[in-house]
Specification:
Elements lengths: L1 H41 L16 H8 L5 E6 L6 H13 L3 E6 L5 H6 L7 E6 L2 E4 L5 H12 L3 E6 L16 H9 L2 E6 L11 E7 L7 H12 L3 E5 L7 H8 L3 E3 L2 E5 L2 H5 L8 E2 L1 E2 L13 E2 L6 E3 L7 E8 L4 E5 L17 E2 L3 E8 L15 E6 L15 H12 L22 H30 L1
C-alpha cells in the first residue's frame, strides 16, 4: 500500500504541475493577445527597425500629410485579402493624418466603384478627394505620394531654355536629363522647352525658368529678358559649368550681388576619397541657412566639375542672397580655368581662390522704390544658381541628396514650402554574399550542428529523469 500511495502521490503531483503549466501558458497567451489588441486599437506609435526604414514614410510624405486640409480617400483595388505590402504601406498614410482614410476594395465585388475610377487591373491604387482622383503610377510610397501631390497641387509649367547646347531632356545617357524631367513630372510640373532666340519673351504660363549647362554664351538681349522676368517676380534656376565663358550670364548674377567665378573647384577632402570621389568632384557636407538645404543637413551631395560663386560684401537694395553649399577648407578654385589645361599642379597663392568656396547660391529680388501705378506691390522674384549641371544628370542625380537638393530648390522657387523635404527612396536590395567556406560553416552549424545538439540535449534530459 505504501508503494502504491507513493506512486499515486507522485502521479498526482505531476498532473497538478502539468495542469498549472497549461493554465499559466493560457494566461500568458491571453495577456499577450489582450496587449496586442490594445496597442493596435488605441496606440498608434510604431517602431521601424529595418536599416532602410522600409516600413516608414519619408519626411516628404509625412510633411504633406500633416498639412492636409481636406479629406482624402486612398482606394486599394485588390482581390479579397489584398496584398500585405499594400496594407503595410497604406496603413501608414491612414495613421499619419486624420484626413486620410484607406479602403480596400475587391473590384469583382464592387464593379461600379472600379468603373468609376477606371480600374483595369488588380493592385491599382487610387487617391481621391471630392470629384478629383489620380491613379498611382506605382504601388510603392513614391507612386502613392506623387498621386497625392497631383491631387492637391495645381499643375505648374517649367520651361528649359534651349539653343545654347544645354542638357538634353530626352536623353537617357549618363549626361542626359531624362531622369530630372521625370522628377519634375512626378511632382506635377509640366516640362516644356523654350528657344529665346526665336521669340524674345517668357511665356505667361511660366512658373520656373531653367538654364541647364549652356555650352555657348547668351546674347545680351536674352539676359535682358531673363533679368526683367526675375525682377518682375519670376523664378530662375541656373546650372552652369566650369570652362565655359559666360560673361552675359555673369553680369546677370552680378546685378543680384553674386559673382560667377571662372574657375574649377578642387577639393582634397579625405572623406570624399573614401566615398570614391575625385578631387574634381567636391563632396558637400556643409550647408547654409535656407529651407532648401535644411532637410538634407545630414546628407552629402556631390558636385562634379563645379565652379564657385562669391556673394558681394555690400548689401544691394532689394536683393537678399544666401550661400547654400560650401566646400571644405582643403578646397581651392583654379582661376581662369579652361579644359585646355592638361594638368592642375595645385593651389597657387595669390592667384587661385582659397576654400571653403560657395558652389550653390539662392537669392530673392524684391521691389525697389515706390509701388507701381496701380499701387500694387510686385511679387518677389527668386533665383537659385549652381556651379555645375552635372550633379543633376542621369549619372549623379541619384547620389546622396542631389535629387532632394534640386527638387527642393525648384519647390522653393515655386513657393511650395510643404514640398521641401526628403523624398521617398526606392527600396534597397539587401544581399548577403558568402564564399564557399562560409557556406560550408552555415551548412554544418545550422543544418546539422544545431539540430544534432538539440537531440543530444533531449536525450540527456530524458536519461537524467529516468
Amino acid at each position: 500500500m505504501g508503494i502504491r500511495e507513493n506512486i499515486t502521490g507522485r502521479g498526482g503531483r505531476r498532473i497538478l504541475e502539468g495542469t498549472n503549466f497549461v493554465i499559466y501558458t493560457l494566461v500568458g497567451i491571453a495577456i499577450l493577445v489582450a496587449l496586442n489588441f490594445y496597442v493596435n486599437r488605441y496606440f498608434s506609435k510604431r517602431w521601424d527597425l529595418t536599416p532602410n526604414k522600409k516600413f516608414s514614410l519619408s519626411p516628404q510624405s509625412v510633411k504633406i500629410l500633416k498639412n492636409l486640409n481636406r479629406n482624402v480617400t486612398i482606394y486599394d483595388f485588390e482581390r479579397q485579402g489584398g496584398t500585405q505590402s499594400h496594407h503595410d504601406l497604406l496603413d501608414n498614410y491612414d495613421a499619419e493624418s486624420p484626413h486620410v482614410s484607406v479602403q480596400y476594395v475587391d473590384p469583382d465585388r464592387e464593379p461600379a466603384l472600379a468603373r468609376q475610377y477606371d480600374v483595369r487591373s488588380y493592385g491599382t491604387i487610387v487617391v481621391a478627394s471630392g470629384s478629383n482622383h489620380f491613379q498611382a503610377q506605382t504601388t510603392d510610397e513614391e507612386g502613392v505620394t506623387n498621386a497625392l501631390i497631383r491631387l492637391l497641387k495645381g499643375q505648374k509649367t517649367v520651361y528649359f531654355i534651349q539653343g545654347h547646347g544645354e542638357r538634353d531632356l530626352s536623353s537617357d545617357e549618363r549626361g542626359g536629363y531624362s531622369q530630372l524631367k521625370k522628377e519634375f513630372e512626378n511632382e506635377n510640373y509640366q516640362v516644356k522647352t523654350l528657344v529665346l532666340l526665336q521669340k524674345m519673351a517668357i511665356p505667361a504660363d511660366c512658373s520656373i525658368l531653367v538654364i541647364a549647362g549652356p555650352h555657348t554664351e547668351y546674347l545680351p538681349q536674352e539676359t535682358d529678358v531673363i533679368s526683367k522676368y526675375v525682377d518682375g517676380g519670376g523664378r530662375l534656376l541656373m546650372l552652369v559649368d566650369p570652362g565655359v565663358q559666360l560673361p552675359n550670364l555673369a553680369k546677370l548674377l552680378a546685378d543680384w550681388n553674386v559673382t560667377l567665378r571662372n574657375d574649377l573647384v578642387i577639393d582634397e577632402n579625405p572623406l570624399a576619397r573614401l566615398a570614391g570621389a575625385e578631387p574634381t568632384m567636391p563632396l558637400i557636407i556643409k550647408y547654409g541657412a535656407s529651407p532648401i538645404v535644411e532637410p538634407i543637413a545630414r546628407t552629402a551631395t556631390l558636385f562634379p566639375l563645379t565652379r564657385s560663386f562669391a556673394i558681394g560684401n555690400g548689401d544691394k537694395p532689394g536683393v537678399t542672397d544666401t550661400s547654400l553649399c560650401e566646400t571644405t577648407q582643403a578646397s581651392f578654385g583654379v582661376a581662369d580655368f579652361t579644359f585646355k589645361m592638361k594638368k592642375v599642379s595645385g593651389y597657387r597663392p595669390g592667384k587661385d581662390y582659397k576654400g571653403p568656396l560657395t558652389v550653390a547660391v539662392s537669392g530673392a529680388v524684391s521691389e525697389q522704390g515706390a509701388p507701381g501705378p496701380q499701387d500694387k506691390k510686385r511679387p518677389e522674384g527668386r533665383f537659385v544658381a549652381l556651379g555645375t549641371s552635372a550633379m543633376a544628370n542621369n549619372a549623379y542625380l541619384g547620389f546622396g541628396g542631389n535629387r532632394d537638393l534640386i527638387m527642393n530648390a525648384v519647390n522653393w522657387l515655386a513657393a511650395e514650402s510643404d514640398m521641401i523635404s526628403v523624398r521617398p527612396k526606392p527600396p534597397e536590395n539587401q544581399r548577403l554574399t558568402l564564399n564557399q567556406r562560409q557556406m560550408q560553416r552555415i551548412l554544418y552549424l545550422g543544418v546539422l550542428g544545431i539540430p544534432l545538439l538539440i537531440i543530444l540535449l533531449g536525450i540527456s534530459v530524458w536519461w537524467g529523469r529516468r
